[in-house]
Each structure stands twice: as structure tokens, then as C-alpha cells.
Amino acid sequence: MSSFSLPQINDNPDGGWGPSSSNLPSQFKFKDIPYAPYSKSDKLGRFADWNDLSGDSRPTNLGLSSTQARGGGPGGRRRDGQPAFGSGTASAFAYFHAEDESSFSVVDSKAGATRRGGPMSRGRTPGRGGAGYNRGGGAQRGGRGGPFGGRGGGGQRGGRRGWRDWEKNGRTRESSVAISPDWAMLEEVEFHRLAKLRLEVDEPEDLETYGRVYPYEKSYDRITTRTEKPLQLLDRIKYNPTTSDDPVIQEMASRDTATIYTTDVILSVLMTAPRSVYPWDIVVVREGNKLFFDKRDGGPFDTVTVNENAADPPQDATAVNPNNPNEKIAVPETPSINSATSLSLEATYINQNFSFQAVIENPPPPAVDFSKPNPFYGPDETEPLASCGYRYRVFDLGVTEDEDVRICVRTEVDAYMPGQDPRQGRGLVTIRALNEFDPRAPGAGGAPDWRTKLDSQRGAVVATEMKNNSCKLAKWTVQSVLAGADHLKIGWISRVNPRDNTRHVVLSTTSTRPADFAAQLNVSLANGWGIVRTVADMCMKQPEGKYVLVKDPNKPVLRLYAVPANAFTAEEEDEEAFDGEDGEA
């Protein structure tokens, strides 16, 4: 019977699996090759992989897959998703081709033609926007029928770049006011600094109420796209004078009611400044220890913007200056109905007439008069007044209890809800309107067709408008909160024909509470009050005089300029006209 002897066992003093390099016998053939760890998931690849033609078509040996032999692929994974055998090992087992291929050349050196697709494959090739029939980019958001009604482009807005898109990015806007070289720039503040400010403000104090308000017509809340109503043209008078021209504010300033005086229209622009894209300016007058925030006649505060925050907002037509080819000038001809200026005038017209139309002027229920009549309606006026109530309110902007910094604001409301008492500050309503011009026109911002989507996909339509008109909606919300309104009514008004900007219809009306809508828009009133207090402190550091706060037309920057005392007045205009006549003579 043969005997059995145990083989020699080499212990690994370093721990772990496998033999120790120090205990390997000298005759061991693979002594200089490091140990390769393995796992149960390792699989043996092909000896020669002739199927993988994605790159190097040479066969790979030594039991390694072609991807591993070339070192390609993250983690050494094959096409089937499984890890290649020994993908985490050292390169000692990899195959390297050491032959010189510098003398090798391809017989056919002609570059292959790039396939651009046939007549039915527009936008289907990878180079022109990925798969599908969309004209947009590769990662689509659902095409034209997607959740937000976009025309494509998820990874990049708009997908494939359109005709002369390179010019759109290079367009520059003009400032809202001509900055004279004699003006001295005093301060400059970036928007990202304004976005970090916060100031908590308590409930305001009501001083006086003026005007008359009519009840809101509740039937407009039940309008649908199938029961649309035409927008009527009503002749009504509605006053919105600047701060210095308000006799009530002048009287309050004489009694030292507050430190700062302004209106809700001007204050809302300042409180939502970080959202603004278009240029604007505020005239600041310091008299003693008082500040007056004014607007200029014919300035940007008298009109309503359209799609200001869209990725490609509406543009005014421009032409190349013949004296300077690199400079573009505005076209003096009649602008298009879808230009920025035309849309702004159209939106202003729609907002005024919708607020006039959405109230009940004939009782019942009757109109309600505030404590005092309209302070701007003269005895010689013959046209009827629009439904409007003015509430003069004072907010305390003091940081400490001992600090006396108060701001007096003239706020406006447009109607009241029937059954409520507006004289007690209950049921007050502000009325605004969004307008649709042409979903296919440049500057539409990917807005869906309201007539087909407003009833069935209202959330998508609202989300698109909140994106394209973020600044405008934020200003309306702030104005409603400042006025203490309980309801904000927003009408959805579209053209009867996309090519006609004179006839419109009311498709629907949305009712919301201003505080809730501010939360949806991510509007922070504390941040807005912080901006107001910062600007006020910046102006109070300057001596008495006139200043102008200008939003840069192309950068998110605010600048404060010192201007002459007669700037932006009728006297200055007369002097300029007189100088022009002398020059001609």
C-alpha cells in the first residue's frame, strides 16, 4: 500500500488570499507577475472577437475581450453590460500591439459623405436633432405636445439653432433714459447682491382712502374657451400720476407723515428688480430728510411688457448702420405687430380695457365710495371715471425700534367682491390680463395654443406664463399685496386672428390670492423690502438734489447718477428745443 505525504503549504504572513511573493519557490515561472484578484462575476472572454467592429478590428488574444485589450469602456464593461474578465487587474496581462504601423495607409482616402436624411427625415438624423419628427434638439421635452408645450429642446432650449440665431445673442438694448456725460455715477449695485437682502416689515397703517369701486362681475370666472367673450373698447378715465404730482402725497409730506414717498407701481418695480430684464429708471428727489421716488412721463412704467423673461423675448426690428457696420440701429418704419414695442402697447391696451369691462357699473349691486372722492378728477372732466380706489398706506422700514424710517405708498384696487365691504378693507380685487399674440411667432417663448390647451392643460399654460413673464407677474402680485387686496383676477385674452392685433376675446379668468400666488412665483416680500431700504439708505447718504436710478439695459446692474435739478422737466425740454432752433438758424 502506497504511502501518502502532505504537500508543502506556503503560508501568507501578509494576510489575504493567494501565495505570498516572499514564499514563492525560485523555480516558479510566474514569480515576477503580480497576483491578479478575481471574483465570481469574472467571465472568460473570446480568444478572438471578430464581432466588435466599433474601433480596432484586430483580434485580441490571451482570453481578453476587445474592449479590455484596447483599454476602452468605463470599468472594462462589454456591450452586454457584464464586466470583462480581469477588468480591474494590472496591465501586466493586457495585450499590446508593438508593430510599427506608420507605413500603413488606407487605399480609399476619400471622406465618407455625411448622411443628412431624405425628404421625410428632417430632424431625424443625430446631427440635426435626434430621433423622431421633432425639429428640436436631441433630448426633447415632449415636442410641441409636451408637458409645457415647447417646440423641442430639452438639453438645450429650442434644439436646432434657427436662421441667424447668432445675431439674436448679440443684440443690445438701449437704455430707458439717455445718460448724459455730465452725470456723475455715484453707486453701482449688482443684482446678485440685492437678492441676498431681507427685511421683515409689519402690517401697514391705513391713512386715507379715495375713489369709487364697482363690484366684480363673477360671470367672468366661468368663461371657457367655448364660451369666450369679446373684449370691448370702453372710454373710461383712470389716473396714475407720479409721486410728486399727487396732491395727497404733497399734503402728507408737509405733515412729515413718512420719510419716503412713492406709488405701488414704482415700488413694485424696485422690489422685483432682480427679475427684470428690460431697462427702466426711477427719478429720486431728496428734499431735506425726505425721499420721493418718481417716474418719468412716457417712461417704461406706463406700459406692460410681454415675455420679458423668455429665453428669446420679442425684439424690435433693427438694421445695420451704414456708417458703422458693427452697429445696429432701430428701423424707423412701421414696426411689426409682434415686435416688442407693438406687443407692449397691445398688452397695455388689453389690461386697461379688461379691468374696465370686468366690473358691474349698473346696480345692483351698487358702487361703493371710499371716504373721499377721486383726488385727480377735476370739475371740468366729462368722461366717466373707471372703477378705481386709492389707498394710502404707511409701512415701517425701521430695523430697530428707535429708528424712524417710514414709507408712504399710494396703492390701487380695481373692484370689490359683491357682498363684501371694501371700506373695511374686505373683498378688494385687483384685475390684470395676460395676452396671447401668436404661438408660432418669434418671441412666443414656447407658449402652447391657449384655445386648445387652456381648458385641458391649464397647469402647463400657467407654468409657461410664469416662466416667460416672471417679472410682470411678480410686479402684479406685489402691487396686490401692497394694496391689501384679497383677490387677484388674471384674464387670459387672445387675438381673434393672430395677424390682427385690434380684436381680442376673453378666453378665461384665473382667481388667486396674492399671498398664495407670491409663494408659487417664489416672490419674497422680505427681500423686496430689503432692496427698498438699501436703495433708500444709498440715496440718503447723498446731499439734497435730484438723482436717477437706472437699470442697465444689458447687465443685471443698478446705477445711481446725480443729475441737474431741471432734468426730466418741461423746462429742460424747452431749452433743448430752443438750442436746436438756434443751431439750425
**Whole-number radius of gyration?**
35 Å
| Tally of strands | 17
Mean residue pLDDT: 78
Summarize the amount of helix as a percent range: 10-25%
Instruction: Kindly give the count of domains.
Output: 2
- Which structural class is indicated by helix and strand composition? alpha+beta
Q: Major beta sheet, specifics? A: 15 strands, mixed
Beta-strand proportion: 15-25%
- CA-CA gap between termini: 138 Å
Q: What is the global morphology?
A: extended
As residue ranges, the low-confidence spans are 54-79, 112-169, 574-585
H/E element string? HHEHEEHEHEEEEHEEEEEHHHEEHHEEH
Please work out how many helical segments DSSP would assign. 12
InterPro entries: eIF3d (IPR007783)
Keywords: Cytoplasm, Initiation factor, Protein biosynthesis, RNA-binding
Main location: cytoplasm
Family: Belongs to the eIF-3 subunit D family.
How would you sum up this structure, described in words?
Keywords: Cytoplasm, Initiation factor, Protein biosynthesis, RNA-binding. Residues 1-11, 57-69 have a biased composition (Polar residues). This is Eukaryotic translation initiation factor 3 subunit D. Pfam families: eIF-3_zeta. Its main location: cytoplasm. It is a single chain. By secondary structure, the chain is α+β, with helices and mostly antiparallel strands. It has two domains: 24-70, no CATH class; 184-584, no CATH class. Helices cover 20% and strands 20% of the residues. It has twelve helices and 17 strands. It has helices at residues 66-69, 165-169, 191-194, 247-254, 264-271, 340-357, 450-453, 458-468, 470-483, 514-521, 525-540, 570-584; strands at residues 184-190, 205-215, 229-230, 260-263, 281-287, 290-294, 318-321, 324-330, 368-369, 388-396, 406-413, 415-416, 428-436, 487-497, 500-512, 545-551, 557-563. The strands form two sheets. The chain has a 15-stranded mixed beta sheet that branches. Strands 7-8 form a two-stranded antiparallel sheet. The longest helix has 18 residues, at 340-357. It starts with 65 loop residues before the first helix and ends with a helix. The model is unreliable at 54-79, 112-169 and 574-585 (pLDDT under 50).
